[in-house]
Amino acid sequence: MFRTVPKTTLLAPIQRRTLLNGNYPKAYPEHVPLTCLGRAVLAVGSGFGTFFDSRRGDLVATLGEATAQPYFIYKLREQMLKDPTGRRLLREQPRMTSKSLDLDKLRNMKVGSIGRTYVEWLDKEGVSPDTRAQVRYIDDPECAYVMQRYRESHDFYHALTGLPIIMEGELALKAFEWANTGLPMSGLGMVLTPLKFKPKQRKRYFDVYLPWALYNGFRSKPVINVYWEEVLEKDAEELRRDLGIEQPPDLRQMKKDMAKKK
Amino acid sequence: MLRSTTLQRLRPAVFRVQRWNSTTTSAPKPSTTHSDIVVVGGGPAGLTIAAALKHYPETVNKSVTLVEFGSLDNLKTWGPDMERFENRVSSLTPSSVEYLTKIGVWEHVNRDRVQAYRHMTAWDGVSGSKVQFNTTQLMGEGRDIAYMTENFNLQNGLLKQLANKPNLTILDKTKVEGVERTPESHNKPLVKLSNGSTISTDLLIGADGANSPVRTFSGIEARGWDYNTHGLVATVRLANEQQSAWQRFLPTGPIALLPLPNRFGSLVWSTTPKMAAQLKQLTPEQFVMMVNCAFNLEPTDIEYLVEHPDEIMTDAPYRLSQRSSNPDVPCPIVAVQDKSRASFPLKMKHADTYIAENVALVGDAAHTTHPLAGQGLNMGQGDAQSLAIAIRNAAGRGADIGSTLTLEPYWADQYFKNHKLLGVVDKLHKLYSTRNPLVVGLRSLGLDAVNSVKPVKDFLMSQAS
Ligand SMILES: Cc1cc2nc3c(=O)[nH]c(=O)nc-3n(C[C@H](O)[C@H](O)[C@H](O)COP(=O)(O)OP(=O)(O)OC[C@H]3O[C@@H](n4cnc5c(N)ncnc54)[C@H](O)[C@@H]3O)c2cc1C
């Protein structure tokens, strides 16, 4: 009657159809099939949760998945299907873990390379590639991979742009991602979260970071099509140029400058 | 300025003709003969009207001359090689076949090469919404939607029926070079042929295709537009025997696969002229792969692969393997018959009228349409039937077969019917060539509704046959 449920699953999949759980079969091992109502509840619930505590990575991830389907994730996959590297990514479906990336090797790469910048960034923020949540609410297995790839590439976007994981940096990156990928969740965060900012933070965000993020996100090539594993040796500056991205001013430096002025 | 130069250019030509006419008495005499009816064009429409006229007792004794520019030798000797099928194939509706049977043609069509089908699936390549037609439920047990017939098979059957008919002359390899009306001919058409002879006639029937010279000579305008789309046709081999038709609407145009006997299939892929040219250049293996992609993958995938032919054999098999098997998609295509790929520009055109004094237009000469509804040739069959009946009625009364009064019932019968059909097909084409998400959503709702509401489907089916 009851299936053994992986411990990591948020909502236990039930074989019988309920109001929230769909009774269609799993498309991949971690998949949690939901009904439309289930998806809506998930979106609203995780949306509230995220608004009050944006450090709840699991909720951010859930909100992202709940709002990407059915339309936006297909659009993002379409961007990948239009690009030779994007297609190769879909075919090979590489996953990023601390093992697959060999962080020690990255630490020895030359300064300014993507790999080195990335690992320095991980070390500075104290995060690891393994902390990224597994996709489970996207129904199409290939779209689920697109979501997973987007999520795992996120840390590289930090490395690429140099934005830190403080609230404004995180949000600016979300705005950049929204403009670049079209996923609505990042757009939602971009407009809602600043409501909680202090006036000074808000001004900095709207005057400097948001314009930078939108401008660069829209005009640069789709960053989802970067095969990060293959450009690790490449100079970050060069990759930015290839993609058409400018580096934003250092947020933490700016904070210090402003504090000094006071 | 412009006008005066055109006039100057035109005038000598007119003079020349007149002089030529006036010297006919002294010069080596170009033969002028009379034929009650002259049919220009040996395509499906022209041969059908000739066969119909030779069927009715009222018209069988009228002298008929059929003039065809091309050679009919290939058609006459065309034999049944079951390992090859022509690339020009049309789906004949039950009413077309019914009439062809009535006038004795259908028994001469090689039936081993005709494939009936009773099931049809059409679906939206962007949203996946689909509509399915199944005649066993809709039109009663044992009714077919249509009969896939090679144009050559039909024409060959028509020629067999026409063989040894009295008062019939078929002139092939002969071109109609001009049509004149002079006082001496009592304003009736004088048809000038490339062999030097002239035929005077009471009724000139233009069955001479989309660029109809008869229509031009008669000063009848045809209005419409270019779809800026080409129809790529090919004969393909399927993995197994099929009795179903499929059509998938892609933003570049629909792709249709229709069944033929012996595991063959007839493909009509309407797409941009550029893509049609690229598809014709692919190797047979690449082309077969692309056709399978076109029925299974997303539009983005298809467009990418056509642009990157060297990735077709490496990338496409993976993309296809990602699709879960879909029962609505045709079985895999395994080969394409060599030299069977050809493409035609698609146009929507409708003549302002089908008739003038002593002139009637039938078939593509009167109207051309997008092949998505498979109606082009059937419309011509309807024209031929209606016109033949109008002529028969006049002949029975002993009336002038060429007068507009005689021809009017034909025009009244067919013009509005055809106009409606051309309009519907045109709207369908436009509706499905957009990617606008709102339109895609609405049209999918529409298709889903059509699929689930039986009366709507019944209505559409009855319109199609
Ligand atoms: C890609 C494609 C797919 C199609 N699929 C279907 C389908 O599934 N079902 C369907 O019903 N229809 C279909 N059609 C339409 C169908 O092929 C045409 O409607 C049909 O062939 C028209 O027949 P016709 O006799 O009117 O003209 P044509 O077949 O064009 O015949 C005209 C003839 O006139 C001759 N001619 C022209 N000028 C002269 C001259 N000056 N002197 C002497 N002879 C002349 C030509 O040589 C030609 O033989 C399709 C068309 C295309 C392009």
Write structural notes for this entry.
Chain B: Its cofactor is FAD. Chain B: It is an enzyme of class 1 (oxidoreductase). The complex is a heterodimer of chains A (about 260) and B (about 475). Chain A is mostly helical and about 260 residues long. Chain A has one domain. Helices cover about 60% and strands about 0% of the residues of chain A. Chain A has 13 helices and no strands. In chain A, helix 9 runs antiparallel to helix 10. The longest helix of chain A has 21 residues. The radius of gyration of chain A is 19 Å and the shape is globular. The N terminus of chain A is likely disordered. Chain B folds into 2 domains: about 260 residues, 3-Layer(bba) Sandwich (FAD/NAD(P)-binding domain), CATH 3.50.50; about 170 residues, D-Amino Acid Oxidase, Chain A, domain 2 (2-Layer Sandwich). In chain B, helix 2 runs parallel beside helix 6, helix 2 runs parallel beside helix 12 and helix 9 runs parallel beside helix 11. Chain B is an alpha+beta fold. Chain B is built from 15 helices and 20 strands. Chain B is elongated, with a radius of gyration of 24 Å. In chain B, strand 18 and strand 19 form a beta hairpin. Chain B is about 40% helix and about 25% strand. The chains are: A mainly alpha (about 260), B alpha+beta (about 475). At the A-B interface, helix 4 of A face helix 10 and helix 11 of B. Bound molecules: flavin-adenine dinucleotide (FAD). Flavin-adenine dinucleotide binds next to helix 2, strand 3, strand 12 and helix 12 of chain B.
CATH homologous superfamily placement of the largest domain in chain B: FAD/NAD(P)-binding domain
Strand content of chain B: 25-35%
Greatest interface and its participating residue counts: A-B, 8 and 10 residues
CATH architectural category of the largest domain in chain B: 3-Layer(bba) Sandwich
CATH topology of the largest domain in chain B: FAD/NAD(P)-binding domain
Helix and strand run of chain A: HHHHHHHHHHHHH
Number of domains as seen in the coordinates of chain A: 1
Uncertain segments of chain A = 1-15
Function (chain A): Lyase that catalyzes the C1-decarboxylation of 4-hydroxy-3-methoxy-5-(all-trans-polyprenyl)benzoic acid into 2-methoxy-6-(all-trans-polyprenyl)phenol during ubiquinone biosynthesis.
Family (chain A): Belongs to the COQ4 family.
Protein name (chain A): Ubiquinone biosynthesis protein COQ4, mitochondrial
Pathway (chain A): Cofactor biosynthesis; ubiquinone biosynthesis
